[in-house]
Amino acid sequence: MRRDVFQAIADPVRRDIIELLADETLTVNAIAEKFDISRPAVSKHLKILKECEIIDYQKQGRERLCFIQPRNLIPAFMWIAQYRELWEGKLDRFDSYLTELQSKRN
Questions:
Q1: Is the pLDDT of residue 59 over 70?
Q2: How far apart are CA 66 and CA 30, in angstroms?
Q3: Which of 31, 46, 86, 103 qualifies as a FRET site for 54, CA 20 to 30 Å off?
Q4: Domain range summary for the chain, segments of one domain joined by +
Q5: What is the SS3 assignment for 33?
């Protein structure tokens, strides 16, 4: 099965893993220690991130270091960016509406 970046970011655990790896390179064990799920479950999430080419591994002794491939997140950022302006406009109008309601009450 060919996975894509949207499948990678669809799960909150995978988003948390991406966030962790955005700050630093970590071993698989170090990642697993940060979650209240089993190590095999973390490994499954890492496998999906690897299939989506969001992370990669580097062997260091007996450990595998995980690091992020941020360029592969670009399609998701581009897709989200097209909706940013739309939502900002809607939120601005909602804020104006709430301000108007508040001023009518006072």
A1: yes
A2: 10
A3: 86
A4: 5-105
A5: helix
pLDDT of residue 41: 96
Q: What is the CATH class of 5-105?
A: mainly alpha
Place of tokens 């790896």: 21
Side chain identity at residue 71, one-letter code: R
DSSP state at residue 61? T
* Angle at which helices 12-23 and 39-51 cross, to 10°: 80
Please say if the pLDDT value at position 2 is more than 70. no
- Backbone φ, ψ for residue 20 (5° rounding): -60, -45
Pair of tokens at residue 81: 């960016």
**Which residue type, as a one-letter code, is found at position 103?**
S
pTM (2 d.p.): 0.75
